[in-house]
Structure prediction request, 362 residues.
Amino acid sequence: MDCMTAAVAQLSTMRALMKTKAGPGLELTDAPMCATGPGEVLIRVLRTGICGTDLHIDRWDRWASGVVQAPLILGHEFVGEVAAVGPGVTRVRVGEIVSGEGHLVCGRCRNCMAGRRHLCIRTIGLGVNTDGAFAEYVVLPVSNVWVHRESIPLDVAAIFDPFGNAVHTALAFPVLNEDVLVTGAGPIGVMAGAIARHAGARHVVVTDVSGYRLTLARAMGATVACDISRAGVDNVAAELGMSEGFDVGMEMSGNPAALRSMIAQMSPGGRIAVLGLPSQDVPIDMATVVTRMLTLRGIYGREMYETWYAMSVLLQGGLDIAPVITHRYGYEQHADAFATAGSGRCGKVVIDWTRPTGPGAL
Prediction:
C-alpha cells in the first residue's frame, strides 16, 4: 500500500455537500468516507462545476422531488487526483489527474454490448441517483474514469462533463463551411458555438436574451451574438448574406419558441441537434420539417468515449474554453456559488475543494 493510500485508509468521514432531507437547500456536512471495491477508483476531488441539474436538486423542484432520494451527495462535474484503486484496477494509477463520466451504465443491455454505452437503457446518474462528487472524495468504476494525459488547467478539467455535451452537440453534424445557429447562450451553448467555429463553420450565430451571456458568446468566438428580444434571427441572416437559411442548428435552451424559430430559419436539408430539455410539450411545424426535409436529432450526454477523446484533441488543437469559467468559490462558499450559478449572470461556476474560500468572480 503506497503512502497516499495509507493516509486515506485512516479517514472515517469526509466533508460533503448534501441534500440531507427532502426539500429546498443543501448542507455542508460530514459524510461517511467512500469505500473502494473491486474495479473501482477512489478520487480526491479538487474542483467541481455546478450544473443546471444541481440547481434543480438544490431548489427541490417537481423534477428533483420525483427523481432524487435524500440523503444524497450532489455533483457530477469534477476533476481530482487518484487516491487509491481497488482490486483488479491496472490502467489507472495513484496520483493521476482524472475526470469522470457521470453516466453509470449497466454493461449488459443491447446498446452497451454493441459499444453504444451512451444509449444504455439502465443508465443512472452520478450525483442524481447515487452519491456524487461534491465532496472531498468520490468513488467511480474504473470504466468511468478519464485520465488527463496532457496537462490542462484544473478548472477546465472540472467541466469536461458539460464540455462533452457541447462537443457531442456541436459535432453531431459536419459544420465545416456551414452556417450555424445556436439558440441559448448558457455555458454549453457558448462552448458549442466556439467548437463550431474551431471546426470550420463559416458563421456562428448565438441567440439569447441575456446581455451578460451574449457578451460571453462573442468573447468565445461567435460571429454574431443576437439578443432576440431586440432583433430577429432573419435580420441577422440577411445581414450576413445568408439567403437560404442556416445549415446546422443547435437548440440548447429548452425553450419551445426557440425550437420553432430555429425550424423556420433552416435551409432545405438542414440538420438540427437538440440538447435543451423543455419542461413542457413542444408543438412544432411538422409541415416545414417534412417539406424542407429537415433532420432533428436528440442529444443526451456524451458518447463513451469518443466524445471524451474529441474533447482532449480539441484542446490540444488550440480550442480555448477557459473564458467560459467566470467564477470560482471555496467549498464553504457553496451558497454563494449556487446563487451565482442560478442568477444567469455567469458562465461556469467552479467550487474549489482544496480551500474553504475563493475569489468569486475571476
Observations:
- The mean pLDDT is 95.
